[in-house]
């Protein structure tokens, strides 16, 4: 506004229209002069994406496929409250947001990286996912997880800027402790995030309790192995009181053995961390298989018997392709943006496992 020769209070007006009133156009900002609205409309837009597809229903997990201004797609998943945890009357809503279009980290169970990495999302595009879903659903999002498409810490500057906007009183107004950043294990960025001033939470996509097993599932482990990762996590714990959460997808015959359960228990206890066990969510084109419920329960029981706080999530959304990247992959393939959505090397690795 200063660059446009406008008084400072105009900035507050625009912010109020953007976040409090959720104006869908600059023309709707009625307390700005016509000339200023015209000038702003020539330079800026209030929305950069549209909702392309919604799967699921109001009382279940809903996946939103959002079309970006450049024709690419990202996914955002709305997860309703679990009555067993929050009570039958709970209206808590968790939104799983994306930070990148695609992903470069090639985790072997995930659809996000099947077609590779396209680009980072801007802070605006990250924030707008919340704005779009709230407008569509009529529900306020009170819990955010950066666990959608992409590696949040590989887009550090835009993700942290978005968190500041999401947390601020003039922005979306979500408490810092209600936002969780999930990373595949970028150790240097974990340390950097530990010094970030807002008290956000941290989740680690672990999926293997030894380097031998984790190397098969997560290529990032070859760059930042478990010793380096856990040294960074120890630094995080020295800076913050919040418990770290380990996300651990159970894959039959790969990482579901009781030897891995015992190793995981030891590592989790060392950091007083929580463990969230997730049976593998089928991805078309990958030949991984989820373990039986008996194997899942036995793995969980090892953790519980060792005194580790652990949950086993029979995940919601299995029937709506809720695994990260699946819906986007299908749409961009149909649109001709992605010519070969499932590289041959991924099928070979899946079969070999």
UniProtKB/TrEMBL annotation:
Gene3D superfamilies: 1.10.150.530, Aldolase class I. Residues 89-319 form the Radical SAM core domain. One of its GO terms (molecular function) is 4 iron, 4 sulfur cluster binding. InterPro entries: Aldolase_TIM (IPR013785), Elp3/MiaA/NifB-like_rSAM (IPR006638), Methyltransferase_A (IPR040072), RlmN_N (IPR048641), RNA_MTrfase_RlmN (IPR027492), rRNA_lsu_MTrfase_RlmN/Cfr (IPR004383), rSAM (IPR007197), rSAM_sf (IPR058240). Its cofactor is [4Fe-4S] cluster. One of its GO terms (biological process) is tRNA methylation. SUPFAM superfamilies: Radical SAM enzymes. Its EC number is 2.1.1.192. It catalyses: adenosine(37) in tRNA + 2 reduced [2Fe-2S]-[ferredoxin] + 2 S-adenosyl-L-methionine = 2-methyladenosine(37) in tRNA + 5'-deoxyadenosine + L-methionine + 2 oxidized [2Fe-2S]-[ferredoxin] + S-adenosyl-L-homocysteine; adenosine(2503) in 23S rRNA + 2 reduced [2Fe-2S]-[ferredoxin] + 2 S-adenosyl-L-methionine = 2-methyladenosine(2503) in 23S rRNA + 5'-deoxyadenosine + L-methionine + 2 oxidized [2Fe-2S]-[ferredoxin] + S-adenosyl-L-homocysteine. S-adenosyl-L-methionine binds at residues 150-151, 182, 205-207, 281. The active site is at 75 (proton acceptor), 324 (s-methylcysteine intermediate). It is found in: Cytoplasm. Its main location: cytoplasm. [4Fe-4S] cluster binds at residues 103, 107, 110. Keywords: 4Fe-4S, Cytoplasm, Disulfide bond, Iron, Iron-sulfur, Metal-binding, Methyltransferase, rRNA processing, S-adenosyl-L-methionine, Transferase, tRNA processing. The keyword Lyase does not apply. GO terms for cellular component: cytoplasm. Binds 1 [4Fe-4S] cluster. The cluster is coordinated with 3 cysteines and an exchangeable S-adenosyl-L-methionine. PANTHER family: 23S RRNA METHYLTRANSFERASE, RADICAL SAM CORE DOMAIN-CONTAINING PROTEIN. Belongs to the radical SAM superfamily. RlmN family. Specifically methylates position 2 of adenine 2503 in 23S rRNA and position 2 of adenine 37 in tRNAs. Reaction proceeds by a ping-pong mechanism involving intermediate methylation of a conserved cysteine residue. This is Probable dual-specificity RNA methyltransferase RlmN. It comes from Prosthecobacter fusiformis.
């Amino acid at each position: 506004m200063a660059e446009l020769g406008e008084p400072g209070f105009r900035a507050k007006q625009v912010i109020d229209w953007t976040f409090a009133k959720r104006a869908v156009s600059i023309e709707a900002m009625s307390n700005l002069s016509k000339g200023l609205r015209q000038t702003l409309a020539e330079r800026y837009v209030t929305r950069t994406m549209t909702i392309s597809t919604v799967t699921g229903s109001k009382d279940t997990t809903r996946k939103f496929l959002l079309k970006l201004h450049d024709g690419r797609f990202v996914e955002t998943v709305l997860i309703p409250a679990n009555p067993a945890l929050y009570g039958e009357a709970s209206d808590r809503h968790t939104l799983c947001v994306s930070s990148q279009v695609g992903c470069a980290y090639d985790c072997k169970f995930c659809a996000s990286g099947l077609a590779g990495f396209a680009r980072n999302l801007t802070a605006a595009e990250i924030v707008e996912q919340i704005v779009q879903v709230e407008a569509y659903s009529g529900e306020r999002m009170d819990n955010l997880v950066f666990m959608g498409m992409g590696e949040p810490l590989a887009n550090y500057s835009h993700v942290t800027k978005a968190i500041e906007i999401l947390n601020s009183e003039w922005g979306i107004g979500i408490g810092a402790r209600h936002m969780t950043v999930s990373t595949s294990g970028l150790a240097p960025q974990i340390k950097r995030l530990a010094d970030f001033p807002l008290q956000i939470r941290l989740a680690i996509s672990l999926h293997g309790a030894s380097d031998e097993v984790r190397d098969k599932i997560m290529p990032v482990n070859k760059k930042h192995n478990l010793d380096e990762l856990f040294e960074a996590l120890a630094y995080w714990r020295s800076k913050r009181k919040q418990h770290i959460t380990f996300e651990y997808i159970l894959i039959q015959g790969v990482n579901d053995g009781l030897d891995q359960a015992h190793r995981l228990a030891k590592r989790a206890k060392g950091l007083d961390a929580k463990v969230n066990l997730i049976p593998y969510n089928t991805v078309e084109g990958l030949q991984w298989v989820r373990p039986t419920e008996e194997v899942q329960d036995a793995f969980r029981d090892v953790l519980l018997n060792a005194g580790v706080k652990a949950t086993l999530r029979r995940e919601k959304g299995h029937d709506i392709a809720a695994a990260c990247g699946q819906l986007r992959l299908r749409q961009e393939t149909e649109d001709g943006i992605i010519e070969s959505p499932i590289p041959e090397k991924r099928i070979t690795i899946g079969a070999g496992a």
